[in-house]
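Marked as duplicate of an earlier ticket. Keeping the data here for the record.
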Amino acid sequence: MLRGWRSEPKGSSLVPTAKGSGRPAPPTTRVSNGMDQFFTSIQGQQSLRILDLAGASQANISFITNLGHRLYSDDILRTLDDSFGSGSDALSNQSDPARVQQFLSQTLDFPPAHFDGALVWDTMQFLSPQLLQLTIERLRHILRSSAYLLAFFHAEEKADLLPAYSYRIVDSKTLSLALRGERTPAQFFNNRSLEKLFQEFQSVKFFLTRDHLREVIVRR
């Protein structure tokens, strides 16, 4: 079952191109230990509900459904731009209560304990502290007890812009990443701040990769 089927976003993100070619940059692949642990945690189970916030893709749909599970997809970055805009006021708009409610209603409006796992990818680093806390609370609300959540955070604390990707599952250990532009980070995270962010969850585990991407697997 799909929720929020959408095309790739328009407007907010820069369209990445290969140098000098004018053509979109090709996707890259990488091994993900965090994703490997996520799928290991649900191995042998059937008919689970998995939330994917990277936007609907045939690769992710096929992989999840072939495992015998149901996938609910939404493009949280597009909803972020729809709710708060994409200009210089986008971050300050994240403190507007009406816009915040619109964002949460469009993205995470599900019953309690509805999901058995969530693939959040790199979206949290683009949310202001207040909006992020509300989003974490909503995610905890819609995940069942002991469900796992996978999220990525860039470890470069001095970057003015961070790449945002579309994440496509190749297999349980491999991702294909297509650059969808660069965004201004709302905040940066280290292990201590991430532990505090997920302090209401049972456990937090980190995987620091060679490409400065911190993978986090969290147990509800």
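See parent ticket for discussion. Confidence is low (pLDDT under 50) at residues 1-24.
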